[in-house]
Amino acid sequence: MAMTDTLNIQIRRIPVWAIYLVLALPGLWLFLQAFTNRLGVDPVKALEHELGRVALQLLIVGLAITPARRHLNLNLLKFRRAVGLVAFAYIALHLLVWLVLDVQILSQVWADIVKRPYITIGLLAFLMALPLALTSNGLSIRKLGKRWGKLHKLVYGVCLLGGLHFIMLAKGFQIEPLIYMTVVISLLALRLVPKPAHRAKAGASA
Fold this sequence. Notes:
Shape: globular
Mean pLDDT: 89
Radius of gyration: 19 Å
Number of strands: 0
């Protein structure tokens, strides 16, 4: 038995609720650090940025699931919904921290959106992610049929906008945001690469 087959057997034994729990831990830790004043001189800004970073990381993990299955025969599809929903939760928390704890003044929110393009890009990513989160359930899949798959391709745009938001937010030249964007583009490009011939034959005979 191939190593990936053995690994897939072990993966199937992991309950989905455990993934939700594990992925929620970074957020709980960040809020604990913020409320105990352990995130530096500006804990609100640090909390806001770290929540956004975790959100982008989870978007990338979700984006990697299809290429991992196609090219590595690693089947993580059962966790894709959990990863996507938790990623959206982090995006929403990132936005809420900015609105409630950072800006606070409602009139200033619109001024920031107009004046700062990276905020506009981030807000657009959130609006694109919202219908994906709302339709990540069995009822929506049944109701939308083939349209559900087309709708959820919006995640590609969410990932690209999230990466761009990070690049624009960074002050000066920083390598980390560029690495994130490179990974996003690479994972999207892998979707254009044909499935390896031996895997395609295996899939056809299965």
